[in-house]
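Hey all, quick one. A colleague (J.T.) asked me to put the S-adenosylmethionine job into the tracker so the inputs and the structure tokens live in one place instead of scattered across chat threads. No bug as far as I know, just bookkeeping. Sequence used:
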Amino acid sequence: MAKPLAVHAQAEHRALPPVTHDEFARQEFVRAFKEHLVKHVHGGNRAVYERKVKPAFERSHKRAPKTRFEVRDQMVHEPYYQMFSTLLRTSQEMMWSSCQKPVERDLPALNEVIAQPPRKAGGSLRLNPALEIPRYHTAVDIHCQPGGYHVEYMPGDASAGMVYDRAVHVYAMGQMGPYNNDMGASIAMWLQRHHPDFKPQRILDLGCSVGHSTLPYAEAFPDAEIHAIDVAAPMLRYAHARAEDLGVAVHYSQQNAEHTDFEDGSFDLIVSHILLHETAERAIHNIVRECHRLLRKGGMMIHAETPPYKGMDPFDAFLLDWDTRNNNEPFWARSHEIDLKTLSKKGGFDPALEFEDLIPSAFQVAQASRSQKFQGGDFGGGGLWFIYGNRK
Ligand SMILES: C[S@@+](CC[C@H](N)C(=O)[O-])C[C@H]1O[C@@H](n2cnc3c(N)ncnc32)[C@H](O)[C@@H]1O
């Protein structure tokens, strides 16, 4: 029998858009629907592959499939995979729709709440209306998020952030904790365990969205000054209101992580969480180079991502690639193919100091991989979050 998933109810805070009974029931249905797919449907894909697709391939090719492309060429014709894939895509669309409705219903009033945070924490918000949103964002509604992160339906709009906060809870099926902060909390925990003497004074979170992963660093390093940037103003407006209400001082600014306005050597720790796979390859190289410029000597950058395809079983890689083909994630595949040592080297880092690890979840909700958590696959390794980083 599949292990029960640990579901955390989402923590309420002033910025979180309220839901009616029926709206909540709808979001809960989507969460449970996805959980059903992950726990009870996903595993059948491997059974179809092992019992039917792989033996047929071996008979005709006299060898097993070697790449995710060879697996895909066969699996896309399988009715079971087609059913699974259709349902998973449907769950994604239902997720956005169920989280959008409560926001659309009362948007002007909700935006007023965001515009007047209680200001109890001492953080700040610096927006730059002149900032150019990169084409890799404007050209696609990433992961089927209607309008993407940056869409604004009225002046001062934060609706993309409101929708995102609820949607991440549904997407992760409540497993990232009441504050959706498992990635940041897990890296902070990893740092404290593996680098107990590392006490960053200035921390920067790149592509922070609504600050889910940012806030745990304030708890782990209470003396640090925390900065967080994103290109999308609606996410930052919401992030600022959320952090202030939760009593955490974060200095948010609207900037492109490829080229920021911070001075050379201004941070001890730079982190990002599932940012890289949403940017074009050129941008990933620019971001790593910018991290090198912004870090002080001895500083550290850490990027949390889904694991690279390298060394992965072709069937697992095929499943991990699902988002590229079915979830409007055009950069997903390429970002998982980049050689990380080369990335570090091109960015100016010493490749000898580069590190990669699969780290455990701070919430201890699974001993398996992230993909087991979100898609039902088991990509091995024993950890949950994949991190890639370097020291300067
Ligand atoms: C998947 S979300 C990140 C989630 C967030 N880090 C967390 O842990 O909850 C990706 C975010 O990166 C932002 N982003 C994408 N490209 C960026 C760039 N070049 N500079 C800054 N932010 C960027 C997007 O606007 C979006 O909010």
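Adding what we noticed when we looked at it: Residues 134, 149, 183, 206-209, 212-213, 229-232, 235, 256-258, 273-275, 278-279, 283 surround S-adenosylmethionine (CB under 6 Å). The domain at 8-392 is CATH 3.40.50.150 (Rossmann fold).
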